Each structure stands twice: as C-alpha cells, then as structure tokens.
Amino acid sequence: MARGCPSCSCTLRLTSIPVCPLSVQTHRDGTYHYNLGKALAPLRGEGVLVLGSGSATHNLGKMGRDDEPVPQWASDFDAWLRDSLLAGRYDDVNRYQEEAPHAKTAHPSPEHFYPLHVALGATGDEPKAELIHHSWAEANMSYASYRFTTKR
Predict the structure, then answer these.
(1) Domains defined for the chain, CATH in brackets
(2) I need a labelling partner for 63 at 20 to 30 A (CA). Which of 2, 45, 73, 139 fits?
(3) Model-level pTM?
(4) Which part of the chain is the Extradiol ring-cleavage dioxygenase class III enzyme subunit B domain (predicted)?
C-alpha cells in the first residue's frame, strides 16, 4: 500500500517491516528534536533502527536544473553541516539557525532537516558521524547521507 506524504508529495511504501513514523515539530528547534532522539536511544539495545529522512539542503523555491552549478549558499551550508557533523560539533548542528551560513535559505522551513537531529540524538552517548553518500539534484538539493554510530 502506498500513500502520499502531505508535506512534500513523496510516496511512502508500507511493508511488513514495523514502522513508527514521528512527526517533527516545526515550531520547536533542533535541540528539541535531538533530545527526542535521545529519548529513543535505548531502543537501539532492542535492535530498533532509527532512520531520519530529509535533505541536507531543501529550498524548493530556488530549485534549478540538474546541469546547473550548485549555488554558493547551498554549497556553504552543506560544507558547514558536513564539517560540523564529522568534527562532532553537534551543539552547533542543533543551533544551526544561529551557527550555519545561509541557514534560512538552505531550510526556509525545518521539516526536512529535523529528522537528522532525531537520528543523531537516537545514537545515544558519544555519537560519531560518517558521510556515506553525497549527491546534488536540481542545483541546490543536497542529498548528503550520514550514518551515526557510537564511538565505543
């Protein structure tokens, strides 16, 4: 069975794998969503995978063609996010609206970015980020993908 996502019209496929979707709270901040993830962290011991689905940059109003160069604002935000995550500056990521270059342009609304905060928090104590995929689409959509594990 498939249904459309009310936020961005993507299609969700429902399978026999148990899924419990969480709604992000756009009126809250990154720290709230990180702490929401921290509350889910004990589920890792039960074999539960927390998967955040979003986009490292997401501005539909500034989309271009795939063959266009990546705008500087998107490149700057994406590089800041990568550097912050890989260096373990998670407080900066939680406060991205104050810390990141071009944050409001990269994410005019946060619903496609907060899943990253939940997934990061769900890692538990001493998270470690790893970039596992990076690509661009429609000029400004960064599909950087990160895996979060514990340092231990």
Answers:
(1) 30-150 (3.40.830.10)
(2) 2
(3) 0.85
(4) 17-148
